[in-house]
């Protein structure tokens, strides 16, 4: 309980304002996804937003409906616009769930929604892994299309995948999912017009995977929604400021944490001190009174 209260105290600060130190560092490309869990025995949804290698939004949605998801994702928008009142991301990667896409369209007019290629592949893998050699060849062809050097070759490889699937896969759910992946070619091609966007949800999935263990250790969420959210936000800030694994640190000398790599600097060499300094004033920036 002692450590939980400390975590909740960190969660009172702005997640975006504490992590991102300047408006020009707000990421233009985001990834968003949800994870269902329980709060006091009742099913709820965690709406997570990631960008620039950091977790920038983590809120509880009571239901899977459009309004609740819009409210949960809206926490990120409100905090981001405290830094930059005109902020609007260029793209957001989602898994294609209608309520999630509707929420982001409502929050940011004109945002481009990128369909996650990984989710489409997982729907195939979960049903085709028993095919062994056929699945190996199928996976190779799918990822060969993903790694195509350009939009034209990507389209060609997906078009060739369709006749191959019809010739080598029996009628059933596996062929259905492969053809469904091919039918989403136009949605996947949106990414080609936005260099640097997230074509898969890997960024936010890594955050949610670490959060899974945290929730497991705490036996899911407890208390009211406000307490649960503060605990989650405190965990997210620790995730952003704590040092990454040595292999990642070696790739970016002098930048040990996701927040340091996003901002290009740090206030203090000790990560917790850096977090506490960044969270001064609750993470909210304001002009001096005499400015």
In words, what does this structure look like?
- The chain has helices spanning 2-10, 15-19, 66-83, 98-107, 117-128, 133-146, 151-168, 173-183, 185-189, 202-217, 225-241, 246-251, 258-263, 271-278, and strands at residues 29-39, 42-51, 54-61, 91-94, 112-115.
- It has 291 residues and is an alpha/beta fold.
- It folds into two domains: 2-113 and 200-283, 2-Layer Sandwich (Nucleotidyltransferase, domain 5), CATH 3.30.420; 117-193.
- The longest helix is centred in the N-terminal third of the chain and has 18 residues, at 66-83.
- It starts with a helix and ends in a 13-residue tail after the last helix.
Low-confidence stretches: none
CATH architecture of the largest domain: 2-Layer Sandwich
- The count of strands amounts to 5
The description of the largest β-sheet is: 5 strands, mixed
Question: Which whole number gives the mean pLDDT?
Answer: 93
CATH level-1 class of the largest domain: Alpha Beta
Q: Which sequence of SSEs, written as H and E, runs from N to C? A: HHEEEHEHEHHHHHHHHHH
Structural class, from helix and strand content?
alpha/beta
* Percent of residues in beta strands: 5-15%
Q: What topology, given as strand order, has the largest sheet?
A: 3-2-1-4-5
Shape: globular
Q: What name does the CATH topology of the largest domain carry?
A: Nucleotidyltransferase, domain 5
Tally of separate helices: 14
Number of domains: 2
CATH superfamily membership of the largest domain, which one? Ribonuclease H-like superfamily/Ribonuclease H
Radius of gyration over all CA atoms, rounded: 21 Å
Distance between the termini: 43 Å
Helix residue percentage: 40-55%
